[in-house]
Amino acid sequence: MKLKAVNKNKEFVRAYRRGQSYVGSLVVLHVIKNRYGFTRFGITSSKKIGNAVKRNRARRLLRASVRALPFDMSRSVDIILVPRGKTPYSKQQLVQAQLETLAQKAGLL
Q: Residue 69's closest CA among 27, 12, 23, 32?
């Protein structure tokens, strides 16, 4: 499945400030409505995660988890995923399970 991306900094900031957030030990999920008629995803990671290798691993784990889950792509929302400090050291199955739990809480599946 081809994912649509949230690219602009102002879209990320809008999701952080005005969106609903769901927090887990491995990932934070920010959700906000958009006007595009389809779901878009954005993944960001700060230097708190670690060096570039660890940040990239965290992003890879989140991308793989998003692809594996049956998100409702017809909803008009932006979903921002933020890895936490433990994410690069975790297995993909754990990240996927937690993302699924948070997405169910948010009503995205």
A: 27
What is the C-alpha to C-alpha distance for residues 93 and 65, in angstroms, rounded to an integer? 8
Contact 31, 16 (CB under 8 A): no
Q: Does residue 1 have a pLDDT over 60? A: no
User: Scanning the structure block, which residue is given the tokens 């691993």?
Assistant: 57
For the record, the structure tokens of 79 come out as: 């979903």
Cα–chain center distance at 58: 11
Other CB atoms within 10 A of residue 74 CB: 8
Q: Side-chain half-sphere of 31: how many Cα atoms within 13 Å?
A: 19
pLDDT digit string, tens, across residues 38-77: 899 999 999 999 999 999 999 999 999 999 999 888 889 9
Structure tokens at 60: 């890879």
The predicted model gives 2-25 an average pLDDT of 94
The alpha-carbon radius of gyration of the chain (Å, integer) is 13
